[in-house]
Amino acid sequence: KVWDTWGQMVEPIGSKMAYMAVPGNHELDTWDSTNENGKIYAKRFILPGNERYFSYGVGMVHFVAVSTDESIDKTSTQGTWFENVLTKINEERDKWPWLVVYQHRPIYNSNKIHGNWTGKNTDQYSGPPDFA
Question: Residue 113's pLDDT band (boundaries 50, 70, 90)?
Fold first, then answer.
């Protein structure tokens, strides 16, 4: 029901313009998604890659969508993928001079309940991801 309502609300724009979603806690976390655990999200959005984190180019811009509900530190699967994607994009900067990285949760957040995203898959966020 909630997904149908959301679909009806976004339809006037979504039916005329392409957009790429990125999942968050309300789509993927069992406790936050009323036990649907990403199933409805996966059926409604056909996205590249593993559909949780992915990249794609449009014109002179390369977009990278990352999942804030999975770890992205250097030793994680997503972190390794992210580093490889950035390396490949940088090898073709003449093709994609612009890079946009987007995600569900903000890196910096004044909400004291959530705090800042650290790049770890936890509910406690205390600072930006450490990619160094």
Answer: low
Q: Which amino acid is at 11?
A: E
Distance, CA of 55 to CA of 101 (rounded, Å): 9
pTM higher than 0.90:
no
Q: Is 62 a catalytic residue?
A: no
From the candidates 26, 62, 104, 114, give the one annotated as an active-site residue: 114
Please write down the HEC assignment for all residues of 52-99.
CCEEEEECCEEEEEECCCCCCCCCCHHHHHHHHHHHHHHHCCCCCCEE
Single-letter code of the amino acid located at 114: H
Specify the 3-state DSSP secondary structure of 104: coil
Instruction: Indicate the DSSP class of residue 41.
Output: H
In the chain, the amino acid numbered 24 is: G
Average pLDDT, the chain: 80
